[in-house]
Every structure is written in structure tokens, then in C-alpha cells.
Specification:
heterotrimer; A alpha+beta (335); B alpha+beta (341); C alpha/beta (268); B: 341 residues; alpha+beta; eight-stranded mixed β-sheet; 30% helix; globular; C: 268 residues; alpha/beta; Elongation Factor Tu (Ef-tu), domain 3; Rossmann fold; 2 domains; seven-stranded mixed β-sheet; six-stranded antiparallel β-barrel; 8 helices; disordered N terminus
Chain lengths: 335, 341, 268
């Protein structure tokens, strides 16, 4: 019997059309890029049982299991159950039918750097935030890429995401504990933005230069710099790769709470649904914002958000990027 | 004659509240989220508003030395030709809850600030004289402790010694000053503090009267040239490190008004031995390690008859480069033995 | 705690500058009005409020005046250089152990001083030259980097008449008809038949002291007969700040003048 597939349904189920006819590849979600070793065994088992025994680690920290026959999808979905249960139970994802495989594939896997469970530089538990966002946002059909990084060093490259979340540190200075050793000043000068200067034997921080990386806290031998309690984030938006206009995400919100971050992205879903081009199957969020303009995005995505004191928002954004159609800049160097 | 008492948790709270009316009570306290890394805590000596704030489960990152030797202290103010000695912000007597190693550590500071060269440092003295030790009984080591090897695990220099148990406090009171409040609130009980008698970490101190000159330039120190990053954490966390530098500051646009302060300095920090004109002694980190090591376990003893280091192990706790001072002492002793053979 | 109240030793007192004399382009001698009991070789903590404090050795003194010879190498010394007669200098001291002057009485005294190291021995040389300190002989080797860095030119003229002075510069310069070469070369020329009443003083930069003392040792001069003066960073002068500690010695209180038999074993 010939294979008769509803391609759109299959795609939404996280299976993709591959080069090899009648064979698919399954995308496995790993929110925050962190999983239990037992889950890894299940994923390995899927590849061995249904695929060709190989696995691809995706750029977004998920897995792709290649060479699964389309006809075995329902078996695979049944075998996926423990992974879905993990999403459901541990991360709070709403899944109506746990036997039917992944309920959506629009929102890509939420990636995160190792965060402060491991990394001394990280200002927050990025894994936990990625998992919280997964529980809150998945499943949805919006083509949106989200990543969380623990500090402005941006190891996970949030600058290429639609929503790039950067955990930041609000350094607090304890004047009496400072011995003027200049360790923080040197660290900031050498590694960051030179936001710190010595004046009268004490350290002064230029708030406009400080990017909240936390190097001063790390370098201080007397704990004269500490982190202000409560997690704060900077949200960069609408960076992308893509064929038309690759560009870096730009700061949109600064010093905002985790709740603000979550609410912003949540509000983006109805905004996108309202404004997306219905004539194409799925439109990437970045292009929707291009079309509506930032002001409309602001108005709708910030609806109902209660901002924490000290939160800041970008007045305007100009995204640095380039149009790929720049042939005029090229000349032949070799015939 | 010392008297000892048993107090329920509630009774001790009453004692604490009563003492709080007349004394500032300071002890190791946990500050959630203020650790060096995010979502970690900082434990340091601070005024306690309740005994529940006393942190007993973990070693403090910093020592109680800032009670007598603050990181930054104004010595005097100047206004033209007038100098006026900086007054203490308050006259509060302080009860500090601390372990035997730190009591011994403060004894090492006493020798530096009150005895060395027969000069009494007035700034140290005025803080020191208002301090009362309530010793926290310490029967088990924390990580990196080597107080037993340093003979600093015991002390009888306390106004009171306290054993904190699940259902209360046992206390030995040595100072009449505090006898009444314990007697009124507690019941008479036999209690004598015990001391940790063995640490997991042991150091062997060098058994030499005089260090042979060749050990100063021994290759033993070379590894620290590249390992130490001269961050100074070993100095700032050490209860016995007492070095300081003076610094003048001025007020705004004033040409005449300002103050002279002293701030902690450390032999591992750059600039500690810079001379005007550019000459620097101990440029290499290994030389600094040698300088510190000898001071802590050799030359201080030659001057004061007792080793400076009290084996609290805080330097090992905080070194970001995993340099272990206790291991260094053992390496030195081994090297001296090798040399002697 | 035994509480013994003493005057605060950290508080400086104000002195008036009564004379300023440029020695070289960067070195100068200040004379301040002050009455103090001083031993040659001692130092003061000299300060300018707002700028800072540093140890400076006494380069001469009288009943009501003290001289400091200072090289402008940093923020503080640079600021002091700008001071004029009539302005104030803030000092506390004197600190440290000076030269054991009594031991030098009736000795054959040899003094080797390099560069600004001439300053701390100047009061001592003056005492010899003006007869206050009787000695059998005085050999004085004063070494400078070059002609332009020679300090105390007037004194040197005077000293030349009353002592066996060798004034040397490191390398020959045009118009210089005096001695040349490092001080060590001139130490080598000294001849000692006996060390009985010999006393040697070596003061100067660390490297110069190292080689000069070694030179005397090679001439078999007993270490006990050699005296050196150390210069270190100091923040207190009271044996507290820890900067000047070498081994168990605090240069500020145990020194700066130390016998070489002791100082030779001190490794920074």
C-alpha cells in the first residue's frame, strides 16, 4: 500500500520530510539543553529501534533521530511517552494526548547555556528558566526561537534568537568593605566595558556602561561587591539567521524580572497570530515584527505586564544585519 | 571559679535578648544570595538580631578580624593644619561568638598590634578592648581545617563557652560580667567545652630553628609563580593577616579637608612591596607564597614565640586557583627534610 | 586587656619649611623647623594630607631644624617638590634605629654611599667633619650615576678637605676630572692592615648594597664591622603595617640601620 501522509500534521508532530523517500527524522526536545542520563538512553533506544542507530545533536541542543520509516510513526510516538511525560510532569507542559507524540513543532527547542548550576560566571539558573518557558509556551505553532544565557558573554548565542534572554547581575557596592585593591576595576577594564574607575581610593560604577556581567563580584576579595538579590534579565529581540536578512538581536528590555520575560513572550503568541501572513504556512516572528513595526509589537506584547521597579525599555531599535542581496559588493578574484 | 549552666532554647533566647540590650552581639551569619557566585550564600561575621541567625553548619568565608581591624578605617581627619582623630561610631561593647581558632587568631593580631615594637596601636586597642569572646564549642572540623596541627584548636580565653545542642545551650561562664543572666535564666549544670582533637587535614611544621638560606630560593616555590593569580583572597580571608596600607582622600573640591585611612593590604597583592622609584621586592608570586608561608609558620614564631597561622583553613577554602596552604606547609617540611638528608 | 593610653602615634605634626634647595633636577633638600632628638640614620614619616605619607630619612639636623633630601619619583614626592619656603610639611617620628654612633668613635670609618643613599649618612659625615665625632680616619666613597645626579655638592667640597673622599660617577663624562666607575671598584682599592678599629657603612640602592657588601667581605672585612641601612615601603613606622618585614625583622623599628652580620641573612 502506498504511503498517504498529511504532511502538515506530520510536521506538527515533529517529524520532517527528508531527502530519502518514505523515511522521516524526529526532532526530540531538550528544553534548556539539559536532560537526565536515563532520558538519553530512551532517545538512544529510539534511534536503535526505529532509526539507523545514529543521532544528530542539533544546533539548538535537541536531538534529531534520522531514518525512521514514516509507517512506524505511531510506534515511535508510543515509545516517546516517557519523554513527553517528562515534559508534562517536570516542566508542566500541557499535553492532551500523551500517546500521540509531540503536540507541536513551531516553537523550536529552547536552548540555554549551562547556567549557574555549573558555570561560576552565570547569573542565573538558565536551565530552570528554559524549562519554565517550555512549560508555559509549548506547544505552539509559532516559528519562534528562544534561548537563555547566564551572562552577557552569551555563550549560547542569544544574539541570533527571536528572544534572547540574558541573565544579568545588579552589583551592589559595600563601601566599607572595599580595600581599593582595584581587582574589579582591572577586571572590568580588561574583560568588559571599563565601567569602574577608582576615585579617592574607592570604586565608582558608571551605570550607563555597566552591562551587569558580575565580573566585579567575582573578582572582589572582600565581598565588597555582591549581587542584588532577585534575578534580573536583559531581553534581546528579533535576531535571526535566515536567507534574507541575517541580523543580531538587539536589547529591548533591560533589568526586568523573570515574570516580565515570561509574560512578554507569552503575549507575543496572540500578537503573532493576529498579524501573521495567512497565505504562507508559517511566518517567522521576526518578519511579522518587521511588517507591523516595533511600536505595534510593543503595544501588544507589553499588554498587561506589570514591570518591576527599575525595568527599562528600548525607545527604538535598529537591528544591525545585512541583506543577503549584496552582489554589487563582490568582484571576481579568480577566473 | 567558672560556673556552668544548661539552658533550653527558649531560655537562651531570653539570655540573648537581655544581652542584646547592652551589647552588640556578633557572630557568623548567612547572607542568602550574597555569595561570590549567583545563588550562593555568603557567611560572614555580622550583628545578630536573634540567635537563630547564628550560622553553625558552615565555616564563615571571612574571619571576625574586621571587628578589631576593619577593612577600611579612618585614622584621622584633616582640615588645614588641624588633625582630629576619628572617633568610633559608637561605644557599644561587643560580644562575638567565635570558634577557638579565631580566638587564637585574634591573639595573633593582639601581638602584632599591641605588642610588636612595644607600640600599642590605638585604633586596634580601642576596638579590641570592647570585645568579649563567647566561644562556640568546636568538636568537629570543617573542610580544610588544620587547627590541631597548629595547636590552635583549644582556648581558655573566653568570657563564656557555649555548646549549641538540639534542645538548648550548655554554657560555661568565665566572666562575672555575664554570670547573672546565665544564672537567672538557666540551671546549674556540669559543662566544660570540648575541643576538636583531630582534623582530617594535618600539617607537619618544619622542625628548624633557622631556615637554611637555600630554601628561600628553592624550586619548591616556583610552581606558585604560575599558579597564584595574586587575587589576595588568602590574605583577606585570613584571621591573622594584619598588613595595611594608608591612603589619603579628600572631600570634593576642598583643598584642605580630607582624611587618612588605613585599608587592608596583602603580601600576595601587586604593589605590596613597590618602592617609590620603581623597585619591587618579591615580584614573583612564588616569592610571595614563600614570604607568607614563612611569616605564618616560621618568622612570626621567632618574634612572638607562637605560630601565626591558626589552621582555620579559610585560605584553602577561598583560593580560586585551588592552591592549598596546608599542602604547601607539608611540601616545605618535606623539602627541608630532603635537604637535611 | 591591659589598656595603656598613649598619644596617637599616627597623628603627624606640622612643621614650617624654612629652606628649599634643589640638589639635582629631581632631588631637593627641605629644611623644616622642628625640635627633635635624632640619631643619624633615623627617618620620619613625611606626609602631605590629601596625598599621602612616606618614610624619608633625615639628611641632616640641628637643634631646631631637620633636613630631608627627597627624590621626586611619585605622587607624594612630586607634590612635596612643589612646596615653597613658608609652607607646611607634616611629619611624625623620628623612627627606627640609627647608626651606632658611639661605636664609630675613634674608629677608622669607611662610608660607602650610592646616590640618594648619601642622604642618611650625611649627618654622620658632618659630625665627623666638624669634630663632633672623633675618628682615626674617614674614607668616604660617594658614587653617583652621572655628574647631573650628584647631590650635596657644597658638602662634598667641605668633606673633601676633612676626609679621604672618593667621588665617583659610573662612566666618564666630558669635563669630569674626578674618579669614575662603580663604588665596588673603589672599595677594591682600599687596603686594610688590620680590622681592629675598622667600621664600614654601606648605604644605597639594593643592588649597590649587595655588591658593595660582598666586596668588603672579599677583602676579609668581618661582617660585624659592616653596617647597612635598608629602604623599604612603609605605611606606619611602628611595626604594624607589615610592609617592611623581612624574615622576623621589621625594618622600621629594628632598622633601618642593621649590622651586616644580621642583615646578610635577611632575604626579602
Amino acid at each position: 500500500m502506498s504511503l498517504d501522509l498529511n504532511r502538515k500534521k506530520v510536521t506538527k508532530n515533529a517529524y520532517r520530510i527528508t531527502k530519502r523517500r518514505n523515511y522521516t527524522a524526529l526532532r526530540v526536545r531538550v528544553p534548556g539543553g539539559h536532560l537526565n542520563a536515563a532520558q538519553l538512553s530512551i532517545i538512544a533506544g529510539l534511534a536503535e529501534t526505529f532509526g539507523d542507530g545514529t543521532l544528530h545533536v542539533t544546533a539548538r541542543q535537541g536531538f534529531e533521530i534520522p531514518n525512521i520509516p514514516f509507517e512506524r510513526m505511531s510506534e515511535v510516538n508510543a515509545a516517546l511517552k516517557p519523554l513527553l511525560a517528562e515534559l508534562q510532569l517536570r516542566h508542566g507542559v500541557q499535553i492532551d494526548n500523551i500517546d500521540a507524540g509531540y503536540p507541536g513543532a513551531g516553537m523550536r527547542n529552547i536552548s540555554a547555556c549551562v547556567g549557574n548550576r555549573i558555570c561560576p560566571f552565570a547569573n542565573a539558573d538558565t536551565t530552570a528558566l528554559a524549562q519554565r518557558l517550555e512549560g508555559m509556551l509549548y506547544p505552539n505553532d509559532l516559528h519562534v526561537k528562544i534561548a537563555v544565557t547566564g551572562c552577557p558573554n552569551d555563550c549560547v548565542k542569544v544574539h541570533l534568537q527571536d528572544f534572547g534572554i540574558v541573565a544579568i547581575c545588579e552589583p551592589e557596592y559595600h563601601y566599607d568593605d572595599c580595600i581599593g585593591c582595584e581587582a574589579c576595576v582591572k577586571a572590568c577594564e580588561r574583560k568588559v566595558t571599563g565601567a569602574l574607575t577608582m576615585q579617592n581610593g574607592k570604586v565608582y560604577r558608571d551605570e550607563r556602561r555597566c552591562i551587569g556581567c558580575g565580573e566585579c563580584v567575582l573578582s572582589c576579595p572582600t565581598a565588597a561587591w555582591t549581587r542584588r538579590p532577585g534575578r534580573l534579565y536583559r531581553v534581546l529581540i528579533m535576531g535571526r539567521t535566515g536567507k534574507r536578512n541575517p541580523r543580531l538581536a538587539m536589547p529591548f528590555l533591560d533589568r526586568v524580572s523573570e515574570d516580565v520575560v515570561c509574560q512578554l513572550i507569552k503575549n507575543t503568541l496572540p500578537y503573532a497570530e493576529r498579524h501573521r501572513l495567512k497565505c504562507i504556512p508559517k511566518e517567522h516572528i521576526g518578519y511579522i515584527v518587521d511588517r507591523t513595526g516595533l511600536d505595534v509589537f510593543k503595544e501588544e506584547a507589553l499588554t498587561g505586564i506589570e514591570f518591576n521597579p527599575g525595568a527599562r525599555i528600548a525607545k527604538t531599535i535598529q537591528w544591525p544585519g545585512y541583506n543577503t542581496l549584496n552582489d554589487a559588493n563582490f568582484k571576481l578574484i579568480s577566473k | 571559679m567558672n560556673k556552668s549552666f544548661k539552658l533550653s532554647s527558649e531560655q537562651f533566647k531570653t539570655v540573648f535578648a537581655g544581652l542584646s540590650e547592652h551589647y552588640c552581639i556578633v557572630g557568623p551569619k548567612r547572607f542568602a544570595g550574597l555569595g561570590r557566585f549567583s545563588d550562593t550564600d555568603l557567611i560572614r561575621y555580622a550583628p545578630l538580631t536573634s540567635i537563630d541567625e547564628l550560622e553553625l553548619a558552615e565555616k564563615s568565608c571571612f574571619s571576625p578580624k574586621d571587628l578589631v581591624f576593619p577593612p577600611d578605617e579612618t585614622l584621622f581627619y584633616f582640615n588645614g593644619q588641624q588633625f582630629s582623630e576619628a572617633a568610633l561610631p559608637d561605644n557599644l561593647e561587643i560580644i562575638v561568638l567565635l570558634r577557638p581558632c579565631d580566638i587564637n587568631g585574634i591573639d595573633r593580631l593582639d601581638r602584632m598590634f599591641m605588642k610588636n615594637a612595644d607600640v600599642i596601636d590605638p585604633y586596634y586597642q580601642r576596638r579590641r578592648s570592647r570585645l568579649h569572646f563567647f566561644m562556640i564549642e568546636c568538636r568537629e572540623s570543617f573542610e580544610n581545617c588544620f587547627c590541631v596541627s597548629m595547636n590552635a584548636n583549644r582556648s581558655d580565653n573566653y568570657a563564656a563557652a557555649l555548646r549549641f545542642g538540639k534542645d538548648g545551650v550548655e554554657a560555661e561562664v568565665a566572666s562575672d560580667k555575664f554570670l547573672e543572666t546565665f544564672a537567672v535564666n538557666g540551671s546549674v549544670f556540669e559543662f566544660k567545652p570540648e575541643f576538636v582533637s583531630e582534623n582530617q587535614i594535618k600539617v607537619e611544621l618544619p622542625k628548624v630553628e633557622t631556615m637554611p638560606p637555600e630554601i628561600f630560593t628553592d624550586k619548591l616555590w616556583e610552581e606558585y609563580d604560575s599558579r597564584c593569580i595574586s587575587c589576595g583572597r588568602c590574605n583577606t580571608s585570613c584571621v591573622t593577616c594584619s598588613c595595611f596600607t594608608t591612603r589619603d582622600l579628600f572631600y570634593g573640591d576642598s583643598r584642605t579637608c580630607g582624611e587618612r585611612r588605613r585599608v587592608w593590604d596583602g603580601c600576595h597583592l601587586d604593589g605590596f612591596c613597590d618602592m617609590a622609584g620603581g623597585h619591587t621586592f618579591r615580584k614573583n608570586k612564588g616569592e610571595r607564597m614563600r614570604f607568607k608561608t614563612f611569616h605564618k609558620i616560621y618568622d612570626y614564631r621567632k618574634r612572638f614565640g607562637v605560630d601565626m597561622c591558626v589552621g582555620c583553613g579559610r585560605c584553602d577554602d577561598v583560593c580560586p586557583e585551588y592552591i592549598s596552604f596546608s599542602n604547601c606547609i607539608n611540601k616545605l617540611s618535606a623539602r627541608l627534610k630532603e635537604g637535611a638528608e | 586587656m591591659s589598656a595603656q593610653t598613649t598619644a596617637n602615634p599616627y597623628l603627624p605634626f606640622v612643621t614650617k619649611i624654612i629652606a628649599v634647595k634643589a640638589e639635582t633636577e629631581s632631588e631637593f633638600t627641605l629644611t623644616v623647623q622642628a625640635v627633635c632628638s635624632i640619631t643619624p640614620g633615623q627617618f620620619f614619616q613625611v606626609s602631605l594630607p590629601r596625598i599621602g605619607e612616606a618614610p624619608i630619612s633625615v639628611s641632616n639636623y640641628g637643634s631646631d631644624w631637620i633636613q630631608f633630601t627627597i627624590r621626586a619619583v611619585g605622587k607624594l614626592t612630586g607634590a612635596i617638590q612643589n612646596l615653597k619656603t613658608g609652607e607646611n610639611l607634616f611629619i611624625r617620628g623620628p623612627y627606627g634605629t640609627g647608626f651606632p654612633v658611639d661605636r664609630f668613635k675613634n674608629s677608622r670609618l669607611v662610608i660607602v654611599a650610592g646616590g640618594s643613599g648619601v642622604a642618611p649618612v650625611r649627618p654622620l659625615v658632618d659630625q665627623v667633619v666638624n669634630g663632633q665625632l672623633p675618628v682615626k680616619s674617614l674614607d668616604l666613597i660617594a658614587g653617583f650615576k652621572n655628574r647631573a645626579s650628584i647631590i650635596f655638592t657644597d658638602d662634598l667640597v667641605q668633606w673633601q678637605q676633612k676626609s679621604n673622599l672618593t667621588l665617583t660617577i659610573d662612566k666618564q663624562e666630558e669635563g669630569w676630572d674626578g674618579a669614575t666607575g662603580l663604588v665596588t671598584e673603589h672599595i677594591r682599592k682600599l687596603r686594610f692592615d688590620t680590622f681592629d678599629d675598622l667600621q664600614v657603612i654601606v648605604v644605597g640602592p639594593p643592588v649597590m648594597m649587595k655588591f658593595a657588601t660582598a666586596e668588603f667581605r672579599m677583602l676579609q672585612v668581618p661582617a660585624e664591622r659592616i653596617w647597612v641601612s635598608f629602604e623599604r615601603l612603609m605605611s606606619c613606622g611602628l611595626g604594624k603595617c607589615g610592609h617592611c618585614k623581612i624574615d622576623y625583622t621589621y625594618v622600621c623599628v629594628d632598622g633601618p640601620v642593621l649590622n651586616y652580620s644580621y642583615a646578610a641573612n635577611l632575604i626579602d
